[in-house]
Amino acid sequence: MYYRKTGSGTGVGAVNRQAMKALVDGGTVPGLIGYLDGSPVAWVSLGPRGDYAKLRRSSIMKPVDDRPVWSIVCFFVDEEARGTGLAARMLKAAVDYARSRGARLLEAYPVDRDGRSHPDSMFFGAMSMYERAGFREVARRKATRPVVRKSLRPSL
Description:
alpha+beta, Aminopeptidase
């Protein structure tokens, strides 16, 4: 919920759970859940950029231009499921979902560092994963934080 809210009082715990439930109950799909053997182990948050109020004021993630774009703002893969390619499969599912909802451009804000990073700092995903999925850098406002985009064509 962090990027969907503005200000410093973005809520935690029960407040965010209630806000997320209200989104879903109202018909918004706030992201996709990945399952392994019937258990939820992965998450990707995506939607129209306008759904993420905090992005407007971010020095790193502020708009590149005025084109309509969907944004990916968060990845999570359970510790026991990491290293299995699940994040890349979640990214593919996010691309497919955004395309199916009419998005023509999908944007993300990965981490681009040499070497392995601590998982706590990787909730945006790794630049290499996005590159393998066909995303291209369109801006870089901080050395380790590019803005990447992928053009989406309609499904046939």
